[in-house]
Specification:
71 residues, mainly alpha, 0% strand
């Protein structure tokens, strides 16, 4: 059976895109390379985990990855 689902969750930290915009607003520049690489790695890792579960993410972009405070 094929199905599509839209998943959203409110988070105080926002999205990866929000973090990039906030950093740019605060510094006038782009993310430091190590932080950009971390976000990219985590996004790819999440998509790989979804694919292993036979789930496709059809709109991969920084706006669609939520930041969570696990501490």
């Amino acid at each position: 059976t094929e199905a599509s689902y839209g998943l959203t969750e409110a988070t105080k930290l926002g999205t990866v895109f929000d973090a990039i915009q906030a950093y740019h607003a605060a510094t006038g520049g782009g993310l430091p390379e190590p932080l950009a690489m971390y976000f990219a790695f985590e996004m790819v890792n999440i998509v790989e985990l979804l694919h292993q579960a036979n789930i496709l993410h059809l709109d991969v972009k920084t706006d669609n990855f939520l930041l969570l405070d696990l501490g």
